[in-house]
Amino acid sequence: MSRPTPALDGPAGAARGRLPDDAHDGFDRLTHAVLAAPGAGRPAALGAVLRGLLPGTAGVRWLHAEGLSPTSRASDLTAAHWLSLHEAWLAHERAPRAGGRAPGHGPRPDSRHGHAPGAQAIPRYY
Fold first, then answer.
1. Model confidence, pTM
2. Residue 52 burial by CB count (10 A; 0-12/13-18/19+): exposed, middle or buried?
């Protein structure tokens, strides 16, 4: 069961209006994550919010590229910023994830003893 998404207003709503219909769901997830982030009674700093949305230093790099400080708030974003952030977020969503193995790379190595094949643990002399 899906919940109705509240209508976005301001720059985020303007940015959403520029996107094709099939991109609205993803944009809504992104804006909800940014706008609903906890911030001790005030909107959270974008640097902290983006740390959870974009991998590694991508959030800080995006802020720098857009000329924004990590302490900027979501209310500081323009429609162009929202569209740019959405593109950066989509690039992350499409990126391969760590921990998964690509198919076709052969069987997993035999690691019954916790090391790569042919490697041995250093003997302990007591």
1. 0.67
2. exposed
Q: How far is CA 73 from the centre of its chain?
A: 17
CB-based contacts of 90-98 (< 8 A; 24+ apart in sequence): 90/26, 92/53, 92/54, 92/55, 92/58, 93/26, 95/55
The contacts of residue 106 (CB under 8 Å, 6+ apart) are none
**Reduced to 3 states, what is the DSSP secondary structure of residue 90?**
helix
Q: pLDDT per residue over 51-77, tens digit each?
A: 888 888 898 899 999 999 998 888 899
Environment class of 49 (CB within 10 Å of its CB; exposed 0-12, middle 13-18, buried 19+) = buried
